[in-house]
Every structure is written in C-alpha cells, then in structure tokens.
Amino acid sequence: MSEMKMPQVGASRKEIIANWQPENPEFWEKFGKKIAKQNLVVSTIALTLSFCVWYLWSTIAAQLNGAGFHFTTEQLFTLAAFPGLVGATFRFIYTYMPALIGGRNWTFISTIILLVPVVWLGYAVQDTSTTYETFMILTALIGLAGGNFSSSMANIGNFFPKAEKGTALGINGGIGNLGISVIYFLAPFAMGSATLGNIFGVTPAIVKGNAVYLANAAFMWIVPLVIILACMTRYMDNLPSAKPNPKALAQIFSNKHTWAMTLLYTCSFGAFSGYAAALGLLVKTEFPEIPFAHIAFVGPLVSASLRPVGGWLADKINSGTKITFIGLIGLCITTVLIAVGVDMHNFPFFFGMTVLMFISCGFVTGSTFRMIPHIFTDGLQSSLIAGFVGAVAAYGAFITPKIFGYVYTTFGSIHPAFAVLLAFNIVTVFVCYWFYVRKAANMNV
Q1: What does DSSP assign to residue 414?
Q2: Least packed by Cβ within 10 Å: which of 144, 224, 311, 354?
Q3: What is the model's pLDDT at position 405?
Q4: Which DSSP symbol is given to 250?
Q5: Phi-psi domain of 376 (left: phi exceeds 0; alpha: psi -120 through 50; beta: other)
C-alpha cells in the first residue's frame, strides 16, 4: 500500500478512500466521519435484512405441519438448526472476502444471493408435496445469510478510529441482530394478511379453520433487499486494505487470546442465536397452550437493542472485561432459572427468565467485540479475529436447537440440554476471570 497523504478540501470520494486514515483527527473530522457513517448505516440495514432472512425459517417451521406437511419433531428441529450450521461455516470464508474483493463489492454479492432462497421458499411452502430434502436445500441457502455477519463486522470496523470501534461495531452488530426480532414480529402479521397474500399471489393454507399465508413471510423481503442493493452502489466503499495471508492466519490461531475471546463470544452470541432459533419450537413443545408467535420477538429485540449499549458502555468506562464478566454470570443464573420455569410449567416465569437471559447476551456481545481491537491492535489482525470469533459463535444457532431436538428424542425431557448449556457457561466464566479479570492477568481491555 502506498503512503497515505492528507486529502485537500474538495477531494473526490475516491481520493479520500484511497488515503483513509481514521486515527488522524483532522482527516476524521474533515473527511472520514461522514463517509464512515454512510457505510455504517447501509451496512447495518443490509445486515439487519440478512438476519431477517437467516431466521426466516424459524418463523415458518412451527406452522408447517398445521399447513399440511408431515415432519417429525426431530426433523423440524433439524431444519431450524441447519441455517445456523451453514451460516456459521460460511462465516469462516466470508470473514476474508472484504479484504480480498472490497467491502462494498462483497456486501452487494452476499446480499443479492439471498433473493434466491427468499423467492424459492415462498413457492415451496405453498406446495405440500415439497420434500424434506428440498427444505434442507432451502434452509442451507437461507443459512448463507448468517455468513454476512462476519464479513460485515470485519469490514465496518476499519472505517472508524479505535476509540469509536466499540460503538460502531455495537451499532452494526446490534441493530443487525435486531433482524431476528423484526422477522419474529412481522412474520405472524404477514402470514395472516390476506391483502399481502393477494399482492403476492399466495395460495393460503387452512390451519384450524383460518387462512394462513406462509409464503408472505418470505416474499415480503424481496423489495427491501432490492432497495438496499441500490443504496450500496451509492453509499458504500471499498477500503484499501492489506490482503490476508497464511502468516497472518497462523499468528491469530497461535494466540491464546484468539481462543479465549472465541469462547466468550460463543457463550453470549451462541446463546442469543441458539435460543432465538429454537424458542418457538421449545415453547410449542413445553407450553402448547400458549399462543407464542406474537411475542417471540421480545427476547431477540431486547438483546439486539442492548448490544450497542454494551459496546458504548465498554468504551465509556474503558473496560469491556467488567461488562463481559458480569453478563456471563447473568447467563449462568438465567439458564438455571429458565429450566426451573419449564419444570414448574410456569410460562410467565419461564418467559421472564428467557428475556433476562437475552439481556445478558446483549451486553456481552457488545462488550466482547469492543475487547477484540484493544487486545489485537493490528487492524488486519483484529478484523480477521473478529470474523473468526463471529464464525465460531454462530454455531450456537445450530447446536442449541440440535441439542434440544436430541434430548427430547433420547430422554423425553429438556433438562439434560440445560445442564449441558450451564456447564459451558460456567467454564466460560472461569476463562474470562483467568485471562482478563484477575489482577495477575494484567489486561485492561
């Protein structure tokens, strides 16, 4: 990369991007801040839509058998988990794509791909002869949306100075995560709307005497996706950046903090994404008398809303460690109490503890991503690690529903699943204490 120079007043956007230097206060105030915020806004909206698509299947899965399909509980949990598996796996690849072909270029490509499963799923759910194998292919394509988190976070952090990375990444990731609550909130209304059904030409299914337009939940994302694709061409940029190389990758994998931060973020985001993916089916199994669809959005909404707060608060007190540690302890406590709610068959208590669990996740996901650029000060290395950490954590969206489905089939009870999740949480609390909290660790991040 050539040496950076200070752009002159009236410089073109291309020249400003070619000389990007956010740590230079003069450059930041004159040129950088506006462009960075434009990229952040478009990136955040695109990521929000990606999360809407990623969790699209979870809003439909619980309705399928009532609409004339005949899948087992294990099959439904597997289908709900599969987008998480695909999304997590592709995050490893997506992490490096902004550096290889440009942030704007990759954001455009990875978003336009999502139109394929959105359209296809809309037609598939209207045909009760659609096979389980076809839905597996569809959920795999939906899973590609989950990969967008890693590329988005790896890209957007590079636009901001270190002092503002926590807030920027918190906004991008937090509002992006809101896509889960958005899809959970809108899908029930969309599936019950005859007006939308007529607009999209959807054939309704009759469920308990009511017309249900399952395809609406998919088709309603076509227009927003097209609009945000147009915005990318105008308001996003390809930052010049060093290309990842095997040596850089070897360095991050040999660093103990890579694995410590991966564990911390997996505990928080893994719980957030996993519970969000499985909650509808979990409630339908444990509390079949509860009409849950219209309140399913509450937990993800609270968690995603608090993620930017977690990043901002960590910047404010200059310590992501304190917020992370307290939040992880909260996760341990709420995991136990959620299991108690199931055991008592007390839905208000169960749901209240679930919301508290999502609150803990929100703070921790924001604070952990603030810790990364303070532990790994090299910009490229920090981006690579952020992407890797996000990739591993996304497996929570696959593992948690699979654990739930497995224990139901094997033990006929959900409690072994909560025992496994609690044990993992406790290990994570210890790792956080050992590497970052205790004085001997000498880590002020």
Answers
A1: S
A2: 224
A3: 84
A4: H
A5: beta
